[in-house]
Amino acid sequence: NFRIIRSDFTGINEQSYFFLKNKENTFCFWFGRRYLQTGPGQISGLFISVQSPALDNIGYKYKISNNLEIESNIVRLDNRRFNEMLDGFYDSSYDVYYNRWYYYHQFNYVINEFIKVGFKEAVVSTGQDRSVEWYYLLPLGLFHAEQLHAESRSDGLEYTMDSPGMGNNDNSMLGLDLVVKLTDYSFYLEVLIDDFQIDNKDRKKMQDVFGFVVGFDLRTTSLSLIGEYAYASPWLYLNRCKYCSPEINNNSLGLRMPNYQSLGIKLSYYLSGYKLGLLANMLQKGTQDLDTEWNAWGNKIEYFEFESFVYEIRAFASSKYKNTNYELGFSHNWMEDN
Known about the structure:
- Helix content is about 5%, strand content about 50%.
- By secondary structure, the chain is mainly β.
């Protein structure tokens, strides 16, 4: 009852993967390099966005019923080399390599023909020569519960004064989705909770760390209009563990950085087999990026305190020929690259 979908190769560093699914379309499995997207965001996203590069991963999707669906992925991130230099002198014999993995799963539930909700978890795990923890592929296992049952890794971590313990090398995140779909348009919301202090004593030292994306999507036979607002609080994606931000080769999988907000508009027009479009994005940024050293304990930052403004524009035209999409685009300052 299974059939193989041919491998899709579109160029170096793009997609090349094996895909298997059953005839009923209730189960599919894949491995290789392919583009992934999680969440309803159409311009950005929190866990794996539409702007994320193609990722080396293994995963599956299982439709339990007409209302409930599960998806799980293990993503291989790039390795990092670390050297503890002695007296300021570099010695390659002290090089250690940190393997980096990104585990992700989500549960989608269709309440009715108008409303769909989702729950998701993600973990970035790092460590010296760290291999895959296959229990993260368990369909119904909660990542946080699995961490409690396993030995914690703390490679490269040091005790931080006035903070609760040393921490470990697993950066965990929780998320929720909500999509409300009407006739020609829909509204969507995606939320990520990175750090939340329950204890009142800890809340005086550590602020809540979160991000969210909210937008609308209007579609007709010839026109598509998307408006989207994204927000990342200070310290989002950052953690005490070494090299544990959700990025690959300095490209974020989710929102671009902590401590920023953006407003985007995407307009597309369909004409005789062609699509013409314009995407404009306006961003305000703080002082943090994905390489910022974690120092959140006792160091609260105002949620809407930004230092710079950036705008970017991209125009594009695309067409489909023999099941292949071709796109030509022109941009200004896109991804802050002139």
